[in-house]
Description:
alpha/beta
Amino acid sequence: MTVHGLLLAAGAGRRMGAPKALLRDDDGTSWLARSITTLVEGGCAAVTVVLGAAAREADGLVPAGPVSVVVADDWAEGMGASLRAGLTALPPGPEAAVVSLVDLPDVDAAVVRRVVAAGAGTGTLARATYDGVPGHPVLLGRDHWGGIVETVAGDAGARGYLAGREVVLVECGDLATGRDVDRRD
């Protein structure tokens, strides 16, 4: 199965005090670069990054490689706007997209590989769970992209779309916590 990574990194990070796409770990590693590497090493043939707040500055942090950037002009509406922009911008070849977030520091390539391995083909829907709690990454087969684009709104992402469908839940609590980072503390 050909899989494309979709990294959502458009938010302003108000609780964090800065757009998360601009943040770095204590060792200087860019959250954006780390997240892209995680998707590529996890099995994604290429990655599309969705930027919004501070898009110009963040675009300068995107490493060379199989990476493209799309800007969600309506990013302030929430994750739904970022997901819409990203899914609409994906190239025609991949059978599925792995959607992840820039603020998941302990989600690594092993998590992505496990979620990708749970899916098969354009009709697939799978998502990581952490001790039974659904999280990211989420694997979306191409057959679902149009329906998701039509229904996403606000900051809920594809949650509503997924709620009415059969989704393979992939336990990853042994690999990571899956917690997003919203505050510097």
